[in-house]
Structure prediction request, 351 residues.
Amino acid sequence: MSVRNRVESGCADAVGVTFPEWVPLGARLYLSHTATGLSLRALARDSGCHASTVMRQVRRFENRRDDPLVDNALSRLDRALRQAAPDTSSMENAAMAQSSPRSFQDAAPVFSTDDLLHLLAKLERPGTHLIVAPDMPKAVIMCDGPDGSAERLAVLDRAMAEMLALKGWITCRREGRVLSYVLSSEGQAALRDHAEDEPQASRRARYGTLETPIAVLARRRDKSGTPFLVPELVQAADRLREDFVMAQLDTLDLMPAECLIRTMSGRSLPGPNIAPPGTRAARRRVLGALHDLGPGLSDMVLRVCCHLEGVESAEQAMGWCARSGKIVLRIGLQRLKLHYDRLGADEMLIG
Prediction:
């Protein structure tokens, strides 16, 4: 079992509740910490990973509550989890949680991952966005035509829009009285993954995670059975990706690492640059990692780990010879691991 799956199964076992399959790993850890009072170290111990890994996931979802759809989804799940695990002894908690299987469905209506992906596919069309407002029980997917007209593609329950936002498959592009969301890079990766191999995508969706290029490489082994990427390198890649998303950089078009460093250093990111403290801190961490990696290594790591681009596609885009990208990527991840080792363990508090 992979480190990611051990974390998720451990989280579910720790609270005695089986989460809906669409709930992402980080949200499960966050809710287990905030709704049931389990400490970060307890979650890490039960899931077999380092406490700082759990802390980063929890912190990421705490920062994401600025998004109204994410906040509503987490509030729904929080209420359901508190119903399923009332404040009694731990043995009673588990028993009551097991006896309340409908708690999640009552507080947060459950739709299948296929339902979510079907709606997500509509957002691939250029000029398409999802619109929702605080007083709207429904969300609408609209497409802007070249003549300025707007076409309504779908009307969906607000709960489904909240699920898409919680999974990180859509990102808010316009705030205000009416919120506008567009397809995110993770949403694009989910659609690619589903289209390439639907049976495998359906099986992986049970865990609420995406099959990233790093996860694919981590499964590869040489003739002696040694994995191409050891778990420590996979964790370093995940850590950079988490900071990249938390820094709100996943909404930017792919650019060379040098351009991104220059843009971040000059504080010339598109859109409002008055970011909350968690976002600013994440941007500093991404900037420090890219600086440390240097030219070449930073570009490959940025493309594969952050933008979820396939290694072969990255090789072609950068003009490298075939099969060289995997080696450069592994060297980059080794360098990235050393960078994080020098930073030391993160604080075990949120905020």
Confidence is low (pLDDT under 50) at residues 1-16, 87-102, 200-210, 346-351. The two ends are 32 Å apart (CA to CA).
